[in-house]
Design a protein that fits this description.
The complex is a heterotrimer of chains A (358), B (438) and C (307). Chain B has 438 residues and is an alpha/beta fold. Helices cover 42% and strands 13% of the residues of chain B. Chain C is 73% helix and 0% strand. Classes of the chains: A mainly alpha (358), B alpha/beta (438), C mainly alpha (307).
Chain lengths: 358, 438, 307
């Protein structure tokens, strides 16, 4: 009824291969983009920017990156926190060593540096699989955090090892530092996320993406039909780390403004992004966003309801929140193991048939 | 069927927006506290948070707040996690009629708040923790870290060791180890100790322990092999308990083992039992509940069932740290209100209160905290106060901490140049022009 | 030389402590293919429950006015862990049969969150000095006579671990349930078709690993007091796990010993030159190095892949 593609004829291959072939999807995405770019910036304040929107965008981008690796190429990684740290420290070094460098270039460069590191730590994936690989990527996680904590060069020899992001402008607007307007910082992050989500969507539909999926579904079979695992796995690590590196750079420089390696990029960070990907749906771009929304917003919502709404003591509320989050994760997995993205799909099916149940 | 259940579940989630803040009522002094009652550091966070909450509650019950204006103390749970600290800060900064002062309770969260709070003109009172160079009020107008910093403390420990060895010149050739939490907090004293090692000619041995610090065999085996004359510890959480136990195991003399003031609470020494007897730690306030303020807390807060913790844990070291933090904050607000002659101060006015803060022995007596801590005077340039630190020792029989020294002056020859250097770096990186204080 | 020996022995002992945690992972993975992330939280939960039973300031004391002796407390805690295992099967695993491993893994993370919150709400977040009468401190005899340092608690831990492995081996080899367990581990389908109840097996195996978690909780809890950080020891067990192989009980023990010795020797002899605190990543690097040679871990079952 609401979501019917009847009557939408495609007359060319280009139309058939469009990123959103169905009119309603285009409307939907268009509406979201218009709201995100055209409406929210006028209403945004510090709370919404810092506590919710930028928080969400950064994790959505990191989840996109991990989803490419885990969801599309089937390589489970627990090194996300470490790779985000690479992005963050790369951006810090670039900003402080080359103060004149355009900030967009800084962020992109941080992504490329992380990609290189990611490829290096992806090498074991050629031999190790499954949970063994997941735990092996923890080596990267712990080593990188240790490195940034230990080697003074990375934090410009500050006495505590804490890095602080200096104020930088893009197109004449401050995007980092305390003076930056929340709307500027939000738009800066949003632009990166939108561009890279679009890129990812296209990437996974193309030859590279199909190679990844073949490797994910069964690597030996993929190898037999002529896909080179070396190339496919390492490109997945590279692209994924690139995304995660950018997320890390935004996380440090735009969102938090300060970072300490042992806390900001610890192992929980890796797990958190993995949860987002699984809850959102493995192998789904949309899912990364939905998962990030779920994992970022749910705790804040629960806290607001329990503490501000019902006046619970904060400690008890936090415990209850953790318990609820745990039960919700289990409940979701039981009801829909393929994540929120799959739910979205079911919803669309329902909308198409509505008002008829079948 | 499954789908229906899910839509229902989603509908619950869809209320996904923070509840609007309550409508404005009578003016209250809003003081947020970013506490951590959960997570790996909760055992330390809880007594501290209780102390703060109880002191404010006592002021409200006994005096009707500060100079008759009620205090609205808002707790926000961070689990000692910077990201949740961000949410807390943004959520509480405009609560009520605007936050007047923050106590971040955590190094990471303090660093995170420094630029933001300076921008929002809300003073941050990181009592003895956080960024040491914030002592320079010219660069950090809104950050206060009195009564003493980690750097003061490190230099005082060196002084104490020198005294015990029979003079500072006897330090030459001695070996001092620092066992530290491998994080920004734990690395803080290293620079001062390195300078002190150069000045006094002792050898410094650095031993990092990773979070959480459950396994420290390798660290203490190294201590056993190298046999340092003294060990200092900058520990936190489970690391403290394990370190004290391990030190006892290798028979390191406890009275040569000095912990930072975050490594010197009842929690830290209890699991080691009798073995912890004689362990030393830094402190700037007394332990115990034999003060009038504590009696008032019991009378006004606990007797009417409004206490946040266990009655018999009042007076623990960390609880008292909460009390002293709340006391200074309240005094600063009071000073600010009197300077500006207002009953509805703003963050800026409270900052002025902090900078004019003068809690001397007489004032302490009035507050019912006679001899609880030393007199503190803060000025526009100097946000770290007198910087004095004493040493307390654990008596495992009596299960009590008690002071074994007076309060030492820090070694400003080493510290002041470092503060100047670090704050100048911060000012340069963030293009801040230091204000003038005249 | 003496010191090197001390380092190695301390490493071995620390390794045994890791193995205790890793064992729990292996048991569950072997029987149900679930990578149980909640194992660390199990240890914490068991420690908290035990403390509650045997101390004067717990629920139990408040309700009944007396505290249990240690041995009874351990049995009672075991009962609690069986109930937890049963609930896990009833509420979680039963509904996730035949899902992919990563989904099962994720569900155990949900479980970990839940138990973490529950443990804190029920028992409070304070440090609880657990004393079940295990010796602590250095062995005075060796230290006085030979200047040789060995931690008594860890010797006890090693003995208990050895006993545990023997008991488990007998349980697996000689009992009816044990044989059923091995059958399930070999092939779910075949086990089902000869009439083995998969559900019962799962409850049993989760209970057994709950028991192992209890032992780990006692050991680690005696060292540092029972507190939230106890749940983080799972991270120490992961390199042990991949080094030994997910499916091998002897692998968990030998993996633990290798990791323990490796990280202590590295920390003490290489650490000072590159800045120290290298233990954590070194353990993973060491495991990774082994994996590159044997991708299924030292004792893991050979991974055979067919198209």
């Amino acid at each position: 009824m609401f979501y019917r593609e009847a009557g939408q004829f495609k007359t060319s291959y280009t139309a058939d291969e469009a990123i959103f072939p169905i009119l309603q999807d285009r409307f939907f995405i268009g509406a979201i983009l218009i709201v995100a770019f055209g409406v929210i910036p006028f209403f945004i304040d510090d709370y919404w920017a810092n506590a919710i929107l930028i928080h969400f965008l950064v994790y959505a981008l990191a989840a996109l990156g991990l989803n490419i690796l885990t969801g599309y190429c089937g390589q489970v990684s627990l090194g996300t926190g470490g790779f985000m740290a690479v992005g963050a420290y790369a951006s810090y070094k670039l900003v402080t060593v080359f103060p004149e460098m355009n900030f967009i270039v800084v962020i992109l460069m941080s992504g490329f540096i992380t990609a290189a590191v990611g490829v290096f730590f992806g090498l074991p994936s050629l031999r190790i699989k499954g949970f063994y690989l997941a735990v092996a990527t923890l080596a990267a996680q712990f080593f990188l955090v240790w490195l940034f904590n230990k080697v003074g060069w990375f934090y410009n020899y500050s006495p505590t090892g804490m890095i602080v992001s200096p104020p930088r402008e893009v197109f004449g607007f401050l995007v980092t530092g305390p003076d930056a307007h929340p709307a500027a910082r939000y738009l800066f992050c949003l632009s990166f996320v939108v561009v890279f989500a679009w890129a990812a969507k296209n990437l996974v539909r193309g030859r590279i993406g199909r190679n990844w999926m073949a490797i994910r579904d069964m690597d030996i079979a993929a190898e037999l039909i002529g896909i080179r695992p070396l190339e496919a796995k390492l490109t997945a690590f590279a692209v994924s780390s690139f995304y995660i590196g950018i997320a890390g750079a935004l996380y440090f420089s735009v969102w938090l403004g300060t970072a300490e390696p042992t806390e900001a990029f610890d192992i929980n960070q890796s797990f958190f992004v993995l949860f987002i990907v699984i809850i959102g749906g493995l192998g789904s771009i949309m899912g990364s966003f939905m998962g990030a929304a779920f994992m970022v917003l749910l705790p804040i919502t629960m806290k607001s309801i329990m503490v501000d709404g019902f006046g619970f003591a904060v400690g008890a509320a936090k415990h209850a929140e953790v318990m609820l989050l745990g039960s919700l994760i289990i409940l979701f997995l039981i009801l829909e193991p393929h994540g929120l993205a799959r739910l979205w799909q079911i919803l669309k099916e329902k909308l198409r048939r509505w008002p008829f149940p079948y | 069927m499954k789908f229906k259940m899910l839509t229902r579940a989603l509908a619950v989630v869809a209320v996904a927006l923070p509840v609007a803040t309550t409508a404005a009522e009578a003016y209250e002094l809003t003081i947020p506290g970013t506490v951590y009652r959960t997570g790996p550091y909760a055992p330390n966070g809880i007594p501290w948070a209780n102390g703060v909450a109880d002191y404010y509650a006592m002021l409200n019950e006994r005096d009707g707040g500060i100079d008759g204006v009620k205090i609205n103390y808002i707790e926000c749970e961070t689990a000692y996690n910077t990201k949740q600290g961000v949410e807390c800060y943004e959520n509480t900064k405009s609560a009520g009629s605007g936050a007047l002062a923050y106590q971040p309770m955590g190094t990471g969260i303090t660093y995170q708040m420094i630029p933001k709070a300076s921008e929002d003109k809300i003073p941050v009172f990181s009592m003895g923790y956080g960024r040491t160079s914030a002592a320079n009020g010219k660069v950090f107008p809104y950050i206060f870290n009195f009564p003493a910093t980690y750097w003061d403390q490190a230099s005082v420990f060196v002084k104490y060791i020198g005294e015990k060895e029979g003079g500072m010149d006897k330090l030459k050739g001695k070996k001092i180890a620092l066992v530290y939490h491998n994080s920004a907090y734990g690395k803080e004293p290293i620079r001062v100790l390195e300078e002190a090692a150069k000045k006094h000619g002792f050898e410094l041995m650095l031993l990092a322990v990773d979070h959480p610090g459950q396994e420290q065999k390798a660290t203490w085996l190294q201590v056993r092999r190298e046999r340092p004359d003294w060990v200092m510890m900058w520990g936190w959480g489970v690391m403290n308990q394990v370190a004290i136990k391990e030190a006892a195991s290798i028979r390191f003399p406890m009275d040569h083992f000095i912990g930072v003031w975050w490594s010197g609470s009842e929690n830290d020494v209890m699991p080691a039992g009798d073995d912890a007897n004689g362990y030393l730690s830094g402190a700037f306030h007394a332990a115990g509940d034999n003060f009038r303020a504590h009696d008032d807390i019991k009378k006004y807060v606990y007797d009417s069932g409004k206490g946040t913790g266990d009655r018999d844990r009042i007076g623990e070291v960390l609880y008292n740290r909460g009390v002293v933090a709340a006391m200074w904050t309240a005094e600063a607000i009071r000073t600010g209100m009197r300077i500006h002659n207002t009953k509805e101060p703003t963050g800026e006015q409270v900052r002025d209160g902090f900078e004019a803060l003068d809690v001397d022995a007489k004032r302490l007596a009035v507050l019912g905290l006679e001899g609880f801590t030393y007199p503190v005077k803060v000025t526009c340039e100097n946000h770290q106060g007198p910087g004095k630190v004493g040493l307390q020792q654990w008596d495992a029989k009596a299960k009590k901490w008690s002071f074994v020294t007076g309060f030492y002056e820090p070694d400003d020859d080493i510290i002041q140049p470092l503060i100047a250097e670090d704050s100048a770096n911060y000012a340069k990186e963030n293009s801040i022009t230091p204000r003038s204080c005249n | 030389m003496m010191f090197f020996l001390e380092t190695v022995i301390s490493g071995l002992m620390a390794g045994v402590m890791y193995s205790l945690v890793a064992l729990g992972f292996v048991l569950i993975f072997k029987a149900s293919g679930v990578f149980n992330f909640a194992q660390g939280v199990f240890a914490l939960f068991a420690g908290l429950a035990l403390y509650d039973f045997i101390s004067m300031d717990g629920w139990f004391y408040e309700l009944f006015g007396f505290a249990l002796p240690v041995w009874l407390g351990i049995i009672a805690t075991m009962g609690v862990m069986v109930i937890v295992a049963w609930l896990v099967e009833l509420l979680v695993l039963r509904h996730l049969v035949n899902q992919e491993p990563i989904i099962l893994f994720m569900s155990t993370i949900g479980l970990a969150y839940f138990l973490e919150g529950l443990g804190d709400i029920l028992f409070g977040s304070d440090v609880k000095p657990l004393d079940v009468g295990l010796p602590s401190g250095a062995s005075d005899y060796l230290l006085d006579n030979y200047n040789f340092y060995v931690e008594k608690l860890e010797v006890v831990a090693a003995l208990i671990a050895a006993a545990l492995v023997i008991v488990l081996a007998i349980f697996f080899q000689k009992t009816r349930i044990g044989r059923a367990l091995r059958a399930v581990a070999d092939d779910h389908q075949a086990a089902l078709s000869v009439g083995i109840s998969l559900r019962m097996i799962w409850v049993v195996v989760w209970s057994v690993s709950g028991f192992v978690a209890l032992v780990a909780g006692i050991m680690w809890g005696s060292k540092s007091g029972v507190q939230f950080s106890l749940s983080l020891i799972a991270l120490k067990a992961l390199p042990v796990l991949i080094l030994g192989g997910f499916t091998s009980v002897p692998g968990a023990i030998i993996g633990g010993l290798i990791i323990g010795v490796g990280e202590k020797v590295a920390e003490i002899y290489a650490g000072p030159f590159i800045g120290g605190a290298i233990e954590n990543w070194f353990a993973y690097m060491l495991a990774l190095a082994f994996l590159l040679v044997r991708p299924q871990g030292l004792f893991g079952e050979k991974i055979i892949e067919r198209v």
